[in-house]
Write a structure and sequence with these properties.
The protein is an alpha/beta fold and 246 residues long. The chain is built from seven helices and ten strands. The longest helix has 18 residues, at 9-26. 43% of the residues are buried.
């Protein structure tokens, strides 16, 4: 893992957007994996700025989002799809047919997950994946537990994850769905490049466990140690547990 400690979240977000823009210029048909949550918000804002300046052309880019709430249709204001529309999709020139999402309202979750995995495989897998990390070491909606799943699956959300997502529901955690559909660890680890972003002191323990700790299903992000091309970009607070981070 290549760890970089930035002076601020804003600096890291700008660097990440610029990194994506460079990758798109090198390969205009880039297949890009995207997360939701608070962590990537500034990255998406910076992407929109770069697009507005003519420095980031999404016209041939293909996107796959990592996850979606189970039981919510795409047009529900609390859905991950609605989040992406608000913060990125509506503001850039992504072709609608190149935007891929799990359908949380599908009648059969298992069939929907299999469809999504097949769609991603048909696109050739992820060229680049942006990731956040939960305070518990979660990536996507792959939660800590006794085992992890390689393929897309239905995941029961932890209390920590639901608290982190409560802002999508007016900060009322009781309204946050109990489960989500998510890409499995296999798709994440097969991405050709990974950039994981983490900001704030509440992410410090998870970042340290991911980078320094043993591989453990109780810290799903630790399996990124097996990947050959991972950038871990943090601010000072999230990196405070790493040797030599200051």
């Amino acid at each position: 893992m290549n760890v970089r400690v930035f002076a601020s979240e804003k600096e890291a977000a700008a660097a990440c957007a610029a990194y994506v823009a460079t990758a798109v210029r090198e390969k205009p048909s880039l297949v890009l994996g995207l997360p939701i949550g608070r962590t990537p918000l500034n990255v998406y804002r910076e992407m929109v700025v770069l697009h507005g300046r003519g420095e980031l052309d999404f016209s041939r880019v293909t996107t796959f989002n990592l996850d979606e709430f189970l039981g919510l249709p795409p047009d529900d204001p609390g859905s991950f799809r609605a989040y992406m529309e608000r913060h990125l999709f509506q503001h850039v020139n992504l072709a609608r047919e190149r935007i891929h999402f799990l359908d949380g309202s599908a009648d059969r979750a298992e069939r929907e997950c299999a469809r999504y995995d097949a769609q991603l495989a048909g696109a050739g897998g992820l060229d680049m994946l942006l990731l956040g990390i939960g305070p518990n070491g979660q990536v996507g909606c792959n939660e800590p537990g006794e085992s992890l799943q390689a393929v897309s699956h239905r995941a029961r959300l932890s209390r920590e994850s639901r608290l982190a997502m409560a802002s999508l529901f007016g900060d009322d955690v009781s309204k946050v769905p109990l489960a989500a559909l998510t890409l499995g660890m296999g798709a994440l680890l097969q991405a050709r490049r990974v950039i994981l972003l983490a900001f704030g002191v509440n992410k410090a323990a998870a970042v340290t466990a991911m980078v320094r700790g043993p591989l453990s299903t109780h810290c799903p992000a630790s399996f990124l140690q097996l990947h050959g091309n991972v950038e871990v970009w943090v601010d000072f607070e999230a990196g405070r547990g790493l040797d030599g981070s200051r």
